[in-house]
Amino acid sequence: MEDAIELLRSINKNLEDIKKKESLPKLIYAKEIAEKYKVNKNKATEFCKRYGTNFGGYCIEADKFKEVLQNEGLKIFERS
Fold first, then answer.
1. Residue 33's beta-bridge partner residues?
2. How much is the pLDDT for 55?
3. How far apart are CA 50 and CA 38, in angstroms?
4. Residue-wise burial string across 1-34, b where 16 or more C-beta atoms lie within 10 A, e elsewhere
5. What's the whole-number mean pLDDT along residues 46-70?
6. Measured between alpha carbons, how far is 54 from 48 in angstroms, rounded to an integer?
7. Most distant CA atoms of the chain, gap in Å
C-alpha cells in the first residue's frame, strides 16, 4: 500500500514538473480560434486539420499559428 502511495506521489510530482516547463509548446484549439477570430468552428477545425494536429481535439501550436497568419493573413480562414 505504501509503495502505491509513493508511486502516485511520484507521478503527481512528474506531472507538476512537466506543467511548469516553459519549453512545451502552447496549443491553440479550434474552439479558441473560432471564438477569438469570429470564424465558423468548422472552418477553424479545417484550419487545424491542415496546419495543426489532433491532440485531444484539433489544435495548432501557437508559433505555427502565428507563422501561418503572418504568411497568409486572415484570408486563410476563407479558404479553409
1. none
2. 87
3. 19
4. eeeeeeeeeeeeeeeeeeeeeeeeeebbbbeebb
5. 92
6. 8
7. 58
